[in-house]
Design a protein that fits this description.
- The structure holds two protein chains of two kinds.
- Chain A is 44% helix and 10% strand.
- Chain A starts with 5 loop residues before the first helix and ends in a 20-residue tail after the last helix.
- Chain A has twelve helices and seven strands.
- The longest helix of chain A is centred in the N-terminal third of the chain and has 26 residues, at 6-31.
- Chain B has two domains: 3-163 and 305-337, Rossmann fold, CATH 3.40.50; 166-302, Probable inorganic polyphosphate/atp-NAD kinase, domain 2 (Tumour Suppressor Smad4, Sandwich), CATH 2.60.200.
- Chain B has helices at 17-20, 28-44, 59-64, 84-97, 108-115, 140-152, 218-224, 311-320, 326-337, and strands at residues 3-8, 49-52, 72-75, 101-106, 122-127, 161-163, 166-171, 174-179, 182-186, 202-207, 233-239, 245-251, 254-267, 271-273, 279-283, 286-291, 297-302, 307-309.
- In chain B, a hairpin with a 2-residue loop joins strand 15 (279-283) and strand 16 (286-291).
- Classes of the chains: A alpha/beta, B alpha/beta.
């Protein structure tokens, strides 16, 4: 496994804690009627986005899903601008016009959360093709869910990435359910990585609740993509604490499943692993816990005090005007 | 009643070695197809019942779906944990039930888990994993015939199988776990993707066997001192500069020179004390246990491993005894008419 420094470990913990805190707060705010639109929460899957993005720079790209908050935070999108976006406020990442499912920040290589299930695959191929043609060594990571794995767009994207040997890493976040439909009901193969052979790319399955498993696999796949050896399909098996969307009654979760989730909590596992190895002082982790709460408090206060977009801005940033040569 | 137990691991053949080496994805639909052929082979020689471990993928249900056989097929009534515990529990149950043979579909890790509880139940291992020493790449139809011959008593298991060796791991004098082929120390700090694949991280290996033609860590031993399943000895390798080197296929598509600072043949029932270190202990190629310098870790080589069936010897014995022809064949055919 790629060596991992104590600074990187602290970064990982900070990102995971920020994601958890952001999602916990978003759930409360939504329940209180503070947030317009839908929110789909990522808590439980923190190790996937963080373990992957730990290998990326701002120059690399990711495409995301409707459950995109975790990807944004792992890619270091500012949580203030994210929260303001959820509130539909003017300083939001998309000026308050996108909401939870359309947060984007190209300066951070975050090409956008995506309300279309399976919409990220073709986008990832586009940015990867650009990187390949320009020879920039940039890598694009395409996060998608087990539900999106059944969409035609993802099959087309993985086929195209393979035939053109594009620098894409496809990361299937298999949380066991497409909305409320179990994988066994919607997938001809329950292990999505099994399909890699048909796409002619390496495929592997990792425990998506173990940050070190994700980190190791993603590191190798990203290095491979940078070397020009083409795409990889990583299936990270995990779970989500919350429903498909906030308001989902979660009738498909059993008490036994919920107990199992607690035992596999990625943040608790990370803490135990690094403390057992004495890789970072516990006090540093506790400081990060405190800072994460403060950062989200600050983000909420910022969002609440920010103005709504003005009606005259309704059509700005909707169409792009290209300069003629 | 003649019966056979089947354990098929839905998780085998999917780890990081698809990415860092050139291993193939062993997809579960292929395992279903293998399982079907196995069941057909068992049925063809008159086995009356097959008991299959349930799993998260539903390999057993899918294999039985649409298959019309005389043999009864059922799943073991057990909860699925979707990890190694399923194999351990299923193997124990099948041993208690007194099935005539246990067939596994998986890699060395699957067989290691089965060996914890299967006792001396004849074990016929089909490879659907990555680095495989215990299981063989064999056609499941034929494996089914062989397992069926043992289960029906047409061939005496004693004559075509042998008790294998195993490596018993003790931490601070307490028994901790077993491996069937190799115990390795790696400098990795975490279980992470489980597989031991980076040769530069391996520090020390203890092998129960090192046969030419094998792949994985045991191939390092086989390159310098081959040791067979029946040999009453094993091998202890210290990895690092200062001695010779062995060119070894440590994973499919990954052939590298491994520097060796020491090699030693170890006798059966002796113990090897591992060098203290910070790292991971890997059992049959999978990182399992965190190691700390203050621990005393020892590995004992014994002949307490599972009873491994020699499939070809079984079929040869059956042919010698005329099982596939004449009156005995008629007996099997009568079973179909019933």
């Amino acid at each position: 496994m790629t060596e991992i420094t104590s600074e990187k470990l602290l970064w990982i913990y900070e990102r995971m804690r920020l994601i958890r805190e952001f999602e916990t707060r978003a759930a409360k705010l939504f329940a209180a009627g503070q947030l317009p639109g839908f929110v789909h929460l990522y808590a439980g899957e923190e190790a996937i986005a963080t373990g992957v993005c730990a290998h990326l720079t701002d120059r690399d790209f990711i495409t995301s899903t409707h459950r995109g908050h975790g990807h944004c935070i792992a890619k270091e999108v500012d949580v203030r601008s994210m929260m303001a976006e959820l509130y539909g406020k003017e300083p939001g990442a998309c000026k308050g016009k996108g909401g939870s499912m359309h947060i984007a920040d190209v300066s951070k290589g975050m090409l956008g959360a995506n309300g279309i299930v399976g919409g990220g695959g073709p986008l990832a191929c586009g940015s990867a093709l650009t990187a390949k043609v320009l020879g920039t060594q940039q890598v694009t990571v395409c996060f998608f869910g087990d539900g999106a794995a059944e969409q035609g767009t993802m099959h087309e994207a993985m086929n195209m990435a393979a035939i053109w040997k594009l620098p894409v890493v496809f990361v299937c976040e298999n949380n066991g359910f497409a909305e409320s439909t179990p994988v066994a009901y919607h997938a001809s193969v329950k292990d999505i990585a099994d399909r890699a052979t048909a796409y002619n790319m390496p495929g592997l399955t990792v425990d998506g609740t173990d940050i070190f498993a994700v980190y190791e696999a993603a590191g190798e796949a990203i290095v491979r993509a940078r070397r020009g050896e083409g795409p990889t399909l990583i299936e990270a098996k995990a779970f989500r604490y919350y429903g498909h969307f906030e308001g989902d009654p979660l009738t498909y979760y059993t008490d036994e499943m919920r107990k199992g989730f607690q035992a596999r909590d990625p943040i608790a596992r990370f803490r135990k692993q690094v403390l057992d190895r004495a890789l970072v002082p516990e006090a540093r982790l506790n400081e990060i816990d405190t800072r994460a709460v403060q950062a989200i408090d600050d983000a909420v206060a910022f969002a609440e005090s920010s103005p709504l977009p003005v009606p005259t801005d309704l059509l700005s940033d909707v169409y792009v005007t290209y300069a003629h040569a | 009643m003649s019966s056979v137990g089947i354990i098929a691991n839905p998780a085998s053949g999917k780890d990081i070695r698809r990415l860092v080496a050139r291993s193939s994805v062993f997809d579960n639909n292929e395992k279903v197809a293998i399982l079907r052929r196995l069941l057909i082979g068992l049925d063809a020689v008159g086995v009356e019942a097959a008991y299959i471990m349930p799993d998260y993928y539903g390999l057993g249900e899918r294999a039985a779906d649409g298959l019309t056989l005389n043999m009864a097929i059922s799943l073991l009534p057990m909860a699925v944990q979707a990890d190694e515990r399923d194999t351990v529990e299923a193997a124990g149950r099948l041993a208690d039930m007194g099935v005539g043979c246990l067939v596994t579909l998986g890699g060395d890790g699957t067989n290691r888990a089965a060996a914890k509880t299967c006792g001396q139940l004849p074990l016929l291992a089909i490879s659907t994993g990555t680095n495989n020493v215990v299981p063989a790449m064999i056609e499941a139809t034929v494996a089914g015939l062989a397992a069926g011959l043992l289960a029906t008593g047409a061939v005496d298991a004693e004559t075509v199988s042998q008790t294998s060796k195993r490596l018993e791991v003790f931490v601070d004098h307490e028994f901790m776990d077993i491996a069937l082929v190799d115990v390795a120390v790696s400098s990795d700090l975490f279980v992470a993707t489980r597989a031991v694949w980076d040769p530069s991280r391996i520090k020390e290996i203890v092998l129960s066997r090192a046969e030419p033609g094998s792949i994985g860590l045991s191939s390092i031993g086989s390159a310098i001192h081959p040791i067979a399943l029946h040999d009453d000895c094993g091998l202890h390798l210290l990895i690092g500069e200062g001695g010779t080197a062995a060119l070894a296929p440590v994973a499919p598509g990954l052939v590298v020179p491994i520097p060796l600072r020491g090699t030693r043949v170890i006798a059966l029932d002796t113990e090897v004390e591992l060098e203290p270190c910070v790292g991971m202990l890997a059992l049959d190629g999978e990182r399992c246990l965190a190691l700390y310098p203050e621990q005393r870790v020892a590995v004992r080589l014994t002949r307490h491993g599972p009873r491994i069936v020699d499939m070809r010897a079984c079929l040869a014995e059956a042919a010698r005894r005329g099982v596939f022809q004449g009156p005995m064949l008629a007996e099997v055919c009568d079973g179909y008419r019933d």
